[in-house]
Write a structure and sequence with these properties.
The protein is an alpha/beta fold. The chain has 2 helices and 11 strands, in the order E-E-E-E-E-H-E-H-E-E-E-E-E. The strands form 3 sheets. Strands 1-2-3-6-7-11-8 form a 7-stranded mixed beta sheet, covered by helices on one side. A two-stranded antiparallel ribbon has the order 4-5. Helix 2 links the parallel strand 6 and strand 7. The longest helix is centred in the middle third of the chain and has 15 residues. The model has no long low-confidence stretch (mean pLDDT about 95).
């Protein structure tokens, strides 16, 4: 935050930790929400457990976009949960499931030094929860190349900056989501 200060008009929250902005500011098409689960700050890791202040803030930011009829909701956070890379779910399985249940359109991640994109994932009476390192094929709601807004959540990891991309683990149990 010190070397790259906020220049986004209308930003709400704590820049560099947890914030959102509607773009464009007038008649917005997208709300971009940035959260920091699994990231070590000088005061320690931020608490995004279910019912915590940061969990509730995230829910309110998503629900507020819906209440204001903003068509697209994007959440960005450094650590992915579903991945064909080498890391575990530092973002938290419960938080990830909350984003799916709230029908966030896109979740952007980094951390893994690779590029990966899931199919659209969503919940129904046939799929109510997604666990890490397992596959629930009934949670895949669309496998097409085009995204249908409101149908499900797409998780995109773009961690190819600053390093040579790593190999994707095609044998990963979650590979059916990608």
């Amino acid at each position: 935050a010190a070397c790259l200060p906020n220049r986004l008009p209308g930003l709400q929250g704590d820049y560099a930790e947890q914030w959102f902005v509607d773009v464009p500011q007038e008649e917005p098409l997208v709300r971009i929400i940035v959260v920091s689960p699994g990231i070590e700050f000088s005061a320690g890791k931020l608490d995004y457990s279910k019912g915590s202040d940061r969990w509730n803030w995230t829910e309110k930011a998503i629900d507020g976009a819906r209440a204001e009829s903003i068509p697209w909701t994007v959440v960005a956070m450094h650590t992915p949960c579903f991945t064909m890379g080498r890391y575990a779910c530092a973002a938290g399985e419960s938080l990830t499931n909350m984003l799916i249940s709230k029908k966030v359109d896109v979740v952007l991640n980094g951390h893994e030094h690779l590029y990966q994109r899931t199919h659209q994932l969503g919940f129904s009476d046939r799929c109510e929860y997604m666990a890490v390192k397992t596959v629930e094929k009934r949670c895949v709601v669309d496998t097409g190349d085009s995204m249908t807004q409101g149908r499900g959540t797409v998780f995109i990891t773009v961690g190819i900056g600053g390093r040579t991309p790593r190999e994707i683990n095609r044998d990963d149990p979650e590979s059916h989501y990608f």
